């Protein structure tokens, strides 16, 4: 029981660990992580400032158009997990958020969508390699 309480408290204090909540827009809309606890229906974004420093740096690179440190940065994100709102292929692009101490790209990413890469319509952060997302505002 104590472990469950500890894990639950950790999830509530870290937006990237929050459970999925339904995305607004109808019954057939995909689930997405919001800035609310499990069961919440709000899709209010969290502040960019609440994300790790490395995510804020990656976001600045996205808005400036790079250069990006990894070849995969800026490639199409297919949304196969269907956790983000449905869009045509090519709408979403993924970017690496470096993980201190990691020998590879790690699990952290930013996925942004929109017609113009340097002016995205929406951006999402994942700390667990696409298992969950949190939408953020800048």
TrEMBL record:
SUPFAM superfamilies per record: Microbial ribonucleases
Keyword Nuclease: yes
One Pfam family recorded for the sequence: Ribonuclease
Alphabetically ordered keywords of this record: Hydrolase, Nuclease, Signal
Protein origin, superkingdom: Bacteria
Region Disordered, residue ranges: 21-47
Signal peptide coordinates: 1-18
Annotated InterPro entries: N1-like, Ribonuclease/ribotoxin
Keyword hit for Cell membrane: no
Protein's recorded name: Ribonuclease domain-containing protein
Species: Pseudaquabacterium rugosum
